[in-house]
Amino acid sequence: MDPMIAALLRPEAYGHPVETLELLETHASWVILTGAYAYKLKKPVNFGFLDFSSPEQRLHCCREELRLNRRLSPDLYLGLAPVHGPAERASFQGDGPVIEHAVRMRQFPQADLLPAALCRGAVVAAAFDAFAEDLARFQAGAAVARPGSGFGTPEAVRAPVDANLRALAAEPAAQPALAQLAPWVEAEFERLRPLLEQRLLQGWIREGHGDLHLGNLLLREGRIAAFDCLEFSPQLRWIDTISELAFLAMDLAERGRPDLAHRLRDRLLELTGDRQGLTLWRWYTVYRATVRAKVAALRGGQPGLDAAGRMAQQAELAAYLQLALDSTRAGPVALVLTHGPSGSGKSWLSQELVERLGAIRLRSDVERKRPFGLWGLPAHAERQGDPYAPSVSQALFAERLPALARQLLTAGCLTVVDATFGLRRARQPMEALARELGVPLLILELQTPLALARSRIQARQRRGLDPSDADLAVLEHQLLEWEPLEGEERGWALRVPTTAAGDCDGAATAALLLETLATAEPPAPLAPTRGHL
User: Fold this and answer.
1) Is residue 152 located within the same domain as residue 259?
2) Which of 327, 349, 374 is a domain's end point?
């Protein structure tokens, strides 16, 4: 053991009461737990992507760690603590020469880290909704990379992916996966290069967390908090906001919770409106999976690791490489519309499809309000006036929703548009889009008793948390104008009955949707009309 660390494992090395002393060790750090406080010290190591080899570099990174993490968890990060020497008698008190620095933090139970909390079922799904809001606010307020800074360029995005693949090339077990990943990375990068350049110019490259996986999330009083920002490499921290989201979603999926990954993604993108970023989703998921695979390989090579620990790291390496491979393959692409009046359960059902199938959802109630600054973070009003004016409704269904759906479909997403679609003229632009793009079109026809719809609307109004403002008068107006599905539309319809409990069966509907998509054909292009001579 390092002599300094051995000396710091004595109660007398601290100027406060010590309940117990426990040492946690990673490939780059030592963390000493004392009861009330934790002290994090950086190892004098150089892995290429991480260089703590000199005292000056370690002190700089300690200061950066404080600055960065106080943006997200200010009450957790207390300050720097100098270590007084000599090393054999190292102490956080005394007047000897300062030989090292530690980041002093409030200690928290290791059981409150997200992996452990998820395992014991302590994290409710709604906690990820709240965290999505926190993350959206954080990203909105983060510093923006300027063109010419060197951050966020296509080359800067490509470099860490290549570095991961080179590091993994030393692992014999990784060779089969790398043989498939390397050519995919090459081809995908060339396809995405113009968009990567555009993202930098649009301001999506920001000083983020940089290492947002489950092990760096904490459950505190029912809320999820992020800590341990990546302090040692600005290049790995100044990144696309969608890359940050992809890291956490990838880690949730690897741990068997794709439902929470899909829910988090849906909520955050609904807040930010950044559907364009989904074109980069597979790229960043592959990148983040290879990051975790590389870390598993590094940990598996640590000295002193026993056979069981080495096997565990090899299993983790294999799991992340498999996830990277799976992420290179596109899922089903289709346009799915809901069809039912207010209160029929459309939003509940579309949420089920998000979590069960990884669908991307567009809600008319949200997209109607977004341009007026009435939904999303931060509020940004592009328009003024009444979001329910007839001209707004006309533009919403004729232009805005089809344009957003086009963006998602061309990004390779299973796209669900959550709206009443009670009028034929509202459905026609979506039908035309499916014909143009050559993707299947399905319509989920909700069969909900009117009495149940009315009671849901009243309950929703009492809660006051939904983007929908529809009341009973709106429902009655919808019913007066309602235009049932007809003609060719009937062939695209899937009936969704209400269960005895008053809800749709989300699992059954998701299964039926996938089964139908397996053989579904896109709507045939309309034959051109012939004019008269």
Assistant:
1) yes
2) 327
Round to whole Å and give the CA distance between 427 and 523.
14
- Give the chain's domain count: 3
Pairing state between β 77-84 and 98-106: antiparallel
12 located within any domain: yes
Burial 436-470 (b: 16+ CB within 10 A, else e): eeebbbbbbbbebeeeebeebbeebeeeeeebbeb
Integer Cα distance of 502 and 13 in angstroms: 63
Average of per-residue pLDDT across 468-484: 93
Contact 160, 238 (CB under 8 A): no
What pLDDT score does 218 carry? 97
How far lies 6's CA from each of 87, 88, 302, 528, in Å? 9, 8, 19, 82
pLDDT tens-digit series, residues 422-454: 999 999 999 999 999 999 999 999 998 999 899
Measured CA angle at 386 (ends 383, 387), to 5 deg = 75
- Residue-level pLDDT at 454: 93
Q: Residue 532: its pLDDT value, please? A: 44
Domain that holds residue 384: 334-517
Tokens of 37: 């406080």
Is residue 105 a contact partner of residue 77, using CB atoms and an 8 Å limit? yes
Please calculate the CA angle 297-303-309 and round it to the nearest 5 degrees. Answer: 60
Residue 48 has pLDDT above 90, yes or no: no
Higher pLDDT, 244 or 26: 244
Structure tokens of 489? Answer: 């539309």
Of 173, 198, 209, the C-alpha closest to 70 is 209
Minimum mean pLDDT among 53-62, 452-461, 486-495: which range?
452-461
How far apart, in Å, are the Cα atoms of 32 and each of 15, 219, 260, 299? 14, 20, 32, 19
How large is the average pLDDT for residues 210-239? 95
What are 284's two structure tokens?
């960043």
* pLDDT above 70 for 34: yes
Q: What is the pTM of this model?
A: 0.91
**Residue listed under structure tokens 């992020």:** 226
In a domain, 524, yes or no: no
Please give the residue that has the higher pLDDT: either 214 or 374.
Answer: 214
Query: What is the average per-residue pLDDT within 326-330?
Result: 93
**How far is residue 174's CA from residue 322's CA, in Å, rounded to a whole number?**
10
Helix or strand holding residue 205 (H, E): strand 205-207
Asked whether residue 69 falls in the same domain as residue 179, the answer is no
Query: Angle at CA 246, nearest 5°, toward 145 and 359?
Result: 125
Peptide bond into 378 cis (omega under 30): yes
Q: Does residue 522 fall inside a structural domain? A: no
Same domain, 33 and 124: no
* Amino acid sitting at position 107: Q
Q: Report d(CA 196, CA 154) in Å as an integer.
A: 6
Using an 8 Å Cβ cutoff, are 317 and 174 in contact?
yes
